[in-house]
Design a protein that fits this description.
This protein is an all-alpha fold. Helix content is about 60%, strand content about 0%. It is built from four helices and no strands. Helix 3 packs across helix 4. The longest helix has 17 residues. The radius of gyration is 12 Å and the shape is globular. The model has no long low-confidence stretch (mean pLDDT about 90).
């Protein structure tokens, strides 16, 4: 939830962490409630975005779409 708020306020600096983005990076299980884990994830996303010359938002959309099209698991409603 915090990553969503940060991304909404500062999309050029932050990105959302969710199961689809993680899955597209090959991560099936992750502690999404850990600040340190998010900061490591954010650093990796910034590196990927820079390497591919895209914004963090574009990277997030691409990761989400890849998972939607190729991922193994589906979102569940609670």
């Amino acid at each position: 939830m915090a990553s969503t708020i940060l991304t909404t306020m500062f999309p050029e600096k932050y990105t959302i962490i969710d199961f689809r983005a993680l899955e597209s990076l090959g991560i099936v299980k992750a502690p999404t409630d850990s600040v340190d884990y998010y900061l490591d994830y954010l650093a990796k996303c910034r590196e990927l975005a820079c390497r591919h010359n895209v914004s963090l938002r574009t990277l997030d959309r691409a990761l989400w779409q890849w998972s939607k099209e190729n991922g193994a698991r589906e979102a569940t409603c609670a």
